[in-house]
Amino acid sequence: MLAAAQDYYQGLMDYLDNRLSAMEGRMQLWHGQNQRYNSEQQDFKKLTTERVEGLKKDYTALFKQLHLTEVRVYRTEREMEYVETWTTPRACVRPRDRVLERGEWSLRERPLPEGEGEGWEEVPALVSDCEDIISGIRSVKILKRAGGPKGTWTPDPKSSKVYIFNGTSGDTLFQFKSVRDFSNSSGLDSSSSIKLHVEWTGPGSAVYNNHLYYVTHAEEVQVVKFDLTRGFLTDLAMFPLASVSPVYSLNPETVADLSADDKGLWLLFSSSENEPNINLAKLELSTLDIEQIWDTGCPRENAEAAFVVCGVVYVVYNTPLPSRSRVQCVFDVNGVVQNEEAPLIYFPRRFGAHSSLKYNPEEKQLYGWDDGYQIIYRLIMKRKMLARRRG
């Protein structure tokens, strides 16, 4: 009986020993597999790290190449601007304006060759009759860089003085004796400053016949008339709008834009936030009364600026990321020039986007403010009636 019990327990011990040996073998196998997996994981991590470092180096090299390309493109644009200054096209009209370039730009008009421009009536481009429309940009002068990214600069068409509004609001106006004086100055600090009793808002001011016209608004839009000769406010008129909203979507600081031309004073505005188009109002110079209002049909969306020449509104468009500005919508209060017939005018590529464009009817030039640069665009003009005399 005792021997049988001993055989039973001995068999049980052998069974347990075999089971433990099998478990130890499996544990050794799992341990080996775990070490192999861990080694593979370390190798994969090392490989991934090397690949990431390589991608970082490639990204850095690509970024440097893009930066060098950007510098080259910038230099090429500057060289093209220089070439454009000396190789600008001639026009078929005879503007009598001059621009600062060693006293004046050395451009002279020449008659069209025989047979060129057939079907068009060649007439003197007189500002007084105010029958001109813009057909192109003759040449460009980057005069200076003074002030912040946004602002307005404009001469008084009836005098040689130049006025500068730095920024998008303030109570100070900077005055220079002439364009030459401004060009030769060290900056705005060397100017004569004028303190205004009412703060101006937005780069939408205009100067005409020794008077400053500008916009101010808090809860409502007001047009202010300021006598620059005597130095005091002469008139203030409330402009009735349903709500205050930007007239140009790309320049939200401009709630209304004043423009002066041969026919007088104009105001570009938006009647409400829901109004998709730019509206135009003719203002009486002495009283600031509204004589007439038009819907130009030109959309506010992607508009950056506008100006008026001989009763024709030219709206300049761009893209949210500043590209090349272009006149893409035209409205004539007399209905002579149709938008479909007006030429599509592109501005030369500059630094960013215009915060303001002001027309000088005495010189037939635009004064633009582009990312802190003061620019003069010399225009090519033609008679309005010529737009209908094709063929």
Automatic annotation (TrEMBL):
Residues 129-383 form the Olfactomedin-like domain. InterPro entries: Olfac-like_dom, Olfactomedin-like_domain. It holds the Pfam family OLF. Its main location: secreted. One of its GO terms (biological process) is signal transduction. The keyword Secreted applies. One of its GO terms (cellular component) is extracellular space. It comes from Knipowitschia caucasica. The keyword Secreted applies. This is Olfactomedin-like domain-containing protein. It comes from the Eukaryota. Keywords: Secreted. It is found in: Secreted.
